[in-house]
Specification:
InterPro entries: AB_hydrolase_fold, KANL3/Tex30_Abhydrolase, NSL3/Tex30. The protein is α/β, with parallel strands linked by helices. It is built from three helices and four strands; from the N terminus they run βαββαβα.
């Protein structure tokens, strides 16, 4: 399967490209920058309803670019299957010394693809 994604703004750009018609099997977004830190009223969600492929959001519980409570309704805008992989205690850089964060996201994407 063809899986694409990116971290932070790279993930946002990849998701916008998929929303505009890039064909692939799944999308993996690491630390999606839902809004600028401290500015939840500036949500970056306008393109999400146009994503039609299974999408995995890997997000830290301490990410200042969006809390998990803010991320969940944004993820629900995507009409395709979605999953949120929570990384407890991680900030925006997902610096985890105990977990293989990319493997968690790819495993989730492959599960969604069946």
């Amino acid at each position: 399967p063809l899986i694409a994604g990116g971290h932070s703004y790279g993930g946002r750009l990849t998701s916008m490209t998929v929303a505009d018609g890039l064909q692939l099997d799944a999308l993996t977004l690491f630390s999606y920058p839902l809004h600028p830190p401290g500015k939840p009223e500036r949500a970056r969600t306008e393109h999400l309803p146009r994503i039609s492929v299974p999408t995995v959001f890997t997000h830290g519980t301490a990410d200042p670019f969006g809390t998990l409570d803010e991320l969940r309704p944004a993820v629900a805008l995507i009409p395709a299957r979605t999953e949120i992989v929570e990384i407890t205690g991680a900030r925006h850089d997902l610096n985890s010394k105990k977990l293989d964060v990319p493997a968690l996201a790819v495993d989730a994407a492959l599960r969604m693809l069946g």
